[in-house]
From TrEMBL:
Alphabetical keyword list: Hydrolase
PANTHER family: HALOACID DEHALOGENASE, TYPE II (AFU_ORTHOLOGUE AFUA_2G07750)-RELATED, HYDROLASE, HALOACID DELAHOGENASE-RELATED
Protein name per UniProt: 2-haloalkanoic acid dehalogenase type II
Amino acid sequence: MTDPIGEIDRTELMSVWRQMRPWHDSVEGIGRLKRKFTVSALSNAGMAAVIALSKRGGLDFDAVLTGELIHAYKPAPEVYRSACACLGFKPEQIMMVAAHKWDLKAAKDAGFKTAFVPRPLETGPNGKVDIAADASIDVFAANIVDLARLAGV
């Protein structure tokens, strides 16, 4: 089987992760949440890309975790289990915060609490965002700063 995307093209496509900027509320929201909680990224992006985004964007995570560390990608259950192992928390002590309901469903299946933060431009200017109420999600927040407010910080 041949690779439909060559290595040079793949490298160029993946470099987009290094060019991304955080959402407008992320720096303040993460900073506030860190006053009371351990805050970690759990991403399907590569470790170098998440670190580059964090540094460039001023995202002060306590930890950066990626599926790359265990050679799996969300929504595989082992990715969520790895967060427990790496951070030293039981699943019920972790809240997954995401703009993707598929990610939150997998996190909930792993025993995590869940918080949905809609990102209207997540899939582009004409993308559709599912903001419908979902009983399986524990917290709905307008953005990360709102989530911090709801968490009392």
